[in-house]
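Hi R.,

Here's the chain you asked about this morning:
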Amino acid sequence: MLADEKIRLEALNPNQSFIVQAPAGSGKTELLIQRYLKLLGLASYPEEILAMTFTRKAAAEMKGRVFSALTEAQSQQRPEQEHALFTWELAQKVLEQNQSREWNLLDNPARLRIVTIDSFCSSLTRRMPVLSRMGAGLNIQENARSLYRETARSILSLTESDTNPYGVLVRNVLRHIDNSKEDFIKRIVQLLQKRDQWMISFFDPRENLEAHPLNDDARIKLEKTLADLIQSRLGELNDLFSPAIQKSILQVATFSGRNLENENPSHPCACLVNLQSFPDTTIDSLKTWKGLAHLFLTQTNTYRKKPDARLGFPSGKDAVAKQMKDAFVEVIDTLQTNPALLTALAKVKRLPRGHFTDMEWDLLKSTIRLLAEINKTLKHVFSSRQITDFTEISLSAISGLVQKDEDGEEHPTDLLFYLDCKIHHILVDEYQDTSFKQEELLLKLTSEWNDEDGRTLFIVGDPKQSIYRFRDAEVGLFIKTQERGLGNLHLIPLSLESNFRSQKNLVDWVNTCFQKIFPLHEDANLGAISYTPSSAVLEESMTQGVVYHPVPHDQDSHNISEEEARKITDLTKDLQSQYPNKSLAILVRGRTHLTSIVKHFNESGIVFKAESIDSLTDRSAVLDLLSLLRALRFPGDRTAWLSILRAPWCGLSLTDIHALVELNTTTPVWFLLNDHSRMELLSEDGRKRAQKLVQSIHHFLNGYADRNFRDVLEACWIKLGGPACLQGTNPDDIQVFFNKVEEIIASGQEEQFENFDQILTDLYASPLAVSGNAVQIMTMHKAKGLEFDFVILPSLGKRIKGDEKRLVYWMPHGDDLLLAPIEEKGGETSPLYEFLSDLNKEKEDYETLRLLYVAATRAKSQLHLFGHLEPSKEEEWKPHSKSLLNKLWPHIKKEWLENLNETVEQSPAQSKSLPTKTHSIHRLPVDFSFPNPADSIKEGSVVEIEEEKYIEPEYYWAGNKARCLGNVLHRCLHDITVEGLAKWPEERISKLKPKLKSALLGEGLPLEQAEEALKSGLLALSNVLEDERGLWILAPHKDAHSEYPLTFFEDNKYIRNVIDRTFVYEEVRWVIDYKTGTHKGGGKDLEIFLDNEVQRYKPQLERYETVLRKFGEKLPIKKALYFPLLKAWREII
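And here is the predicted structure, written out as tokens:
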């Protein structure tokens, strides 16, 4: 029995709401599917249940697994595995509900509402375009950075206006960033990418941002939030001091303060002079706490070894001074026994004052006012382009669910009332990656729910795997929801612990390591997540769970990368040799960590597949093509033209390029190429190459005004010989480039060509097509949700990239927002800005721990860690302080150093540097000519494809009605044969009336004719189920098929036939064609009608017989027509 078996069963209670914490490998998706099936088996309609996740891939996987469970449940074979059997039984109940309520899910899987949150929001805005203020017909752009840049440039242009009030604000901001326009644009883009954080947290998205009351009350509220946070930090530090150490600290602190007050009153410790008792944790005591921190810590935040006169401890042989110095050293020794104290004291040193200065507040007000204009301008850009992004969709969807009255009270809209009636259960996957806007959406959707009305919310996720903060994920929301529920709903917290993925040795290592390096206590505001151990379901393996591979240090970082790549290559070969059928993955923090590994893999012939790793801009052929694009679009772009001259299709030497442009920095390169005197300065080879370039490019330079620029660019590239200069670039990557060009032209956003290089950085090269069990190479983020037998983590010793400066620093804290205005470039550092920056670094550090957890838990059998150490003053060797290896260091230090000593047989100084390679240029020969074209396609007679023609009954008076009725009845009869006669009792026919009517209307029949055809259809189905011949036709038979398609070739035609019903009975192959026509009258007239029908359709059935013979049928074949409306049967002889 599983350790968490009871918890898993409890999670399926359909009457209760839950939030489930599911660690890596715990079978989270299986539990989510079981919950979905459980609810579906009790629902009146499948649309009552809404399951939402964050990615299309996850939604497709979940929908596929639900559908597979239903498909497998159709078979009577019970699975042997216990968890699979339970899912099978739940799916069986769904199928019973499906039949009794006639959902027809297997034919209509779209009724399963399993969607991404973004697509759900998009559907809401389409339903209510006015309420959501989105309008209709907008295209969604997943990466709207180019539109953000256009918005930023529009805001920047306000500086030219003397009358626009926002121009003053922009100029004020520019002064603080040294008037750097590009820096301003960069920071505005950054703001817009994360605007849901400040839109949801600080502004009401339904109000006019320009009218936000930035008055004294707003200032007091923001300052109180800041003061509360500072006081909590002081409280954390205070709790670390025992009463005994407090008394000792008071003694040395007052001694230092008294001396400094006289000798250096501006010293931070001078404030300690009047310290009568240990300081409290209010904001008024901040200065005192800072004085204590400065007393014990150096400028680099290490403990002082001994005090001196500068710290208020006079030199000399004074007995009191000597006694105080000894007491100081004793205090330091005591403080060092608690490692947490050093970090807490260092944090207090950097705490800001608990209020804004007037200058900071004025700047902050200006920036917030500017945010309003930024948001307004973005909406205008979106509207003018008929484009939007998912953030705008989400914000608009939220605004479409509620509206405010004159008093500011929120009320549900008609859309929310509609959803409230329709949706009874919501399931959310990967909730640890939710953002503020997504939490707000859930709050609105469940605002009218309560714990007693039978509607439930089921949230699943693992906060230890929250690694998408750069996509607005806020892990603190998971913790808050665990603690206080969501809105009116109380969610019962559950935690899974079974690990089905990894062998026991690996699970034990992960438990021990991450319990040591994860924070002890959770903090929703900082994203601190405590670690809860998992329980291994799989037994121990003979292999070691985790293997350490220290890489010797070298002064040259390139040599370290090369040595590490060599070791990884050898390990990969060894693992593939021992375990040829096992999967292996290399997971990296950043793409730059792979350069040496990919090179060694290529040299060693190791087959690998790298997805979203190689940016298009890493391909030289793509960069050359980019230079050509810029040269054609912007003929004055000197850099682009110089790149073209150096590209393989021209290939000028550096000497020739220098001669061409020397001493002339203003004349466009194109003019220089057409200057005869300049061309004479080149070598003979250079002149030939330059002249050929001019001849090839001349016709295209201004030839795109009335032509598609994509076609012009591609034609010019081919004319220059571009396809012969791919140098290993996949042709598909070139196609991606051209497709992006065409996409921009089609959207009418040709100004995007100005920053096309930035657009390319978001496009990745196509992974090479590989066969067999290739090594998978991807980022740690990309690997989330995947698993591999062996996982290699390289470059753990490399430092992590730091945070970027912001226009305004904002950070959600509790239910409020912390704000700091921009720092002045080159000016004094802002304590407030630096404080928020430090908080952000803490959040980033915690997420880095979670990223390591995700990477480590991808392994099923074995995990391999690679990294290097650096020389240190405190220790001989230690990891870089900002590396992933440093995060693991508390757990792996001892064994890592032991392995390093075994690995290093010579000192780093004796290591050999790799030989420097000489640079060579790849270029086409000067006499390059195009290859001969392939032979023309040989023409022959045209092969036709012919569908079987519909033959209208001779005596049927309704015309088109017969064809429509026939189509619907054929589908019904097919369903009966598939589902079985047992599931089609007589009473089911009467319940089919609305569906049959819809189907007939869907065929295009007018309402009146549909009503008439409906009566005939219901009569036909009743006749079939009453007629012995009809029951025999639809009953199960050997080798039976319904609506059986067969295609054959005859007279230069492919003819497609569909046989209504065929089966083997008593060693005879029967071929039966349904005829849904009728005939008014009886007796001889009816017999004549039936005989005529036989003659009419005899050639068709004989053709069926011929086709079956061609497909190898050996049994005797009998053919017949069956008339459901007449209960008539005619065998064709």
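One quick note: Confidence is low (pLDDT under 50) at residues 201-209, 906-914, 950-958.

Cheers,
M.
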